[in-house]
Specification:
It is a single chain. With about 400 residues, the chain is of the alpha/beta class. It has 2 domains: about 5-60 and about 355-390, Urease, subunit C, domain 1; about 60-320, TIM Barrel (Alpha-Beta Barrel), CATH 3.20.20. The chain is about 35% helix and about 25% strand. The strands form 4 sheets. The chain has a 7-stranded mixed beta sheet with strand order 3-2-1-4-15-16-17. A 5-stranded parallel beta sheet has the order 10-11-12-13-14. Strands 5-6-7 form a 3-stranded parallel beta sheet.
Amino acid sequence: MLTGKNVELKAGVLLIGDGRLLENANIGIKEGVIHEVSVDKLEEDYDDAVDLSNRFVMPGLIDAHVHIRYGPKQETVPSSDEYQTIRGLENARKALSAGVTSLGDAGAIRNVGFAVRNAINDGLAVGPRLFVSGEMITMTGGRSKKPGDRLEVDGEDSARKAARSLLMYKGADFIKLGTTGAISSAHTGPRHPQLTVPEMRACTEEAHKCGKMVHSHCYGEAGINNSLEAGVDVIVHGQSLNERHLRLMKQRDMILMPTLKTFCGHLEHLGEGGVHDRIVTTGIWEETEPNFRNALENEIIISMGTDCGMPDNHFGDNPKDLEYMVNWGMTPMQAVTAGTLNAAKSLAVEDKLGTIKPRKLADLLVLKKDPLKDIRHVWNSLEYVILNGRFL
């Protein structure tokens, strides 16, 4: 539609992304970066102007927890890395079309996530910004069906080497730790602690040296205890948060990524077996809503993260995570913040993404209807996705 090099947007209502809004605001964009935002006339001249005075403009969504390599159904025989990379590009495209302008890929195997990220960054494919952890760091056998399935470590030195390799050789954007078992692992319980505190602390130290965040996959009090002791930044899933956990998370400005979309989605497929039924039989489901409401009441920073790529959790439906948050007590404005600024914080990119402010990248959504009246308008009234100042 437009080159995006120098453009002025006139927005009817501007949702900044941090809980504030402006009416009749003007946004000046230069070379894909927001240059100025004002309710008054912009100070500089722009080559193009787009009248969105009867539209709602908000930051692009950031889904900070996906698995880009997976298809819609769990595979009995894994596809090749090459096939998973191609599928990852298509998954990313679907998310972008739904208004997700950034993704956090949390645990692709080997080079798959990095290949998708680099292809998009190099302009070989159109897709959202990708922030990639590389392989999830796990204990031996913790999440693997056979040796070599995952990046396995044993002991502090082994864990430190794994984190350094991801950060230094692969350019990982954050580190993902397998702190407990998973619902999808038949040979271990989701609340069973796995990585030790010294192993986790070693990974955390290496990530923090590079200014990178550490995300901890964990359920249950033991896994959360270990995560807090190791100094991680983001608790992913996090069922069984107790008052001590919440107090420490609040003090440290830690982030909860509850991945509601995957849990709520499982209920639609009960009786089909596998991970869908294990959400109930493991007792995880009964904790999910009370846990979320308790975190919200205690003012914990909550970030969007859908776990898209898990069975029957489809790319392109990513924004529905916000609907579950609103159903369980968030205001629509809080949900918008969870999907923009808070998600940017979870990836340590809030300096360039997550809000509509000068010097931030011009990733924006244009909506026909007010998302503060109905959060579903974020996707069912989506008119334009703007990436790097360009209308897609």
